[in-house]
Structures are given as C-alpha cells and as structure tokens.
Design goal:
This protein has about 140 residues and is mainly alpha-helical. Helices cover about 55% and strands about 5% of the residues. It has a two-stranded antiparallel ribbon with strand order 1-2. A two-stranded antiparallel ribbon has the order 3-4.
Length: about 140
C-alpha cells in the first residue's frame, strides 16, 4: 500500500482538524513557520487527547491535510470561503473548508506531494455546507 493510501485510511474529524488550526493560529508567528515546533505542539495536543498510541499516523495525516489545504488556498481555489485574518499570511476559513479537508481523499500532485483535487474538493465543500438565508 502506498503512503497516501495509508494516510487516507486515518480518520481525522473536522473538530480535531479545527482544533489544530486554532492551535497553529495561537502560536507566535515565528513558531507558525517552524515545522518542528508545529509538530511538537501537535504531539502535545494529541497526547492531551489520549491519542499518543496513534499519534504518528494521526499527525502525518493532519500535516498532509493541512498542507494540501494550504496549497489550495495559495492557488486561490477556495475564493469566497475565506476572509483575511488580522495578521499577514493568516486567513479565516469557513468551517466547511475544514470539514472538506478532513474528509476529502488526498492525492499526489505532479510533484508527488499530498494535495486535494480542486474540483472534487469544491464539490465536497458545497455538499457539506448548510445553506443559509432565504429567497
């Protein structure tokens, strides 16, 4: 089994992914850019949740999913689902994007990096989003 297929078998809840995003947002800017610091904090979060036995697989799955989401955001594939945050490089994202990132299967991009298929991701986000308003 290839690595992405194995990673796709790890279930990550939207709530856990959201907690990790909030944890990242709460880090000082210099720590947010440091992969080692982010992973240490992630391990601590998983340990606090009693997930230390599976933390290697869970942390890799979370890291890959957040990386794939960041690539979509950088490519402006999620326009209309984000608003600028209070700091440069931070965006507030709609909860449906978090759910989509937790549920959408990862694929390998042209450079064999974890990614989401943009069209499939868009369709998933539209499917999981509760409509609001009235006409």
């Amino acid at each position: 089994m290839d690595f992405l297929a194995r990673t796709n078998e790890v279930t990550i809840s939207p709530e856990l992914l959201g907690e990790v995003l909030l944890m990242h947002a709460g880090l000082p800017p210099e720590d947010r850019r440091d992969h080692t610091v982010r992973m240490i904090r992630l391990f601590e979060l998983l340990d606090d949740k009693g997930l230390q036995d599976d933390r290697a697989d869970i942390s890799i799955a979370i890291d890959f999913r957040l990386t794939a989401l960041a690539r979509l955001l950088a490519a402006q594939e999620a326009l209309g689902w984000t608003i600028p945050g209070s700091e440069t490089g931070m965006e507030l994202i709609h909860p449906s994007l978090v759910r989509g990132a937790a549920e959408e299967p990862l694929i390998g991009d042209a450079n064999h990096q974890p990614a989401f298929d943009p069209e499939s991701f868009r369709q998933r986000v539209l499917t999981v989003t509760d409509p609001s308003g009235s006409a």
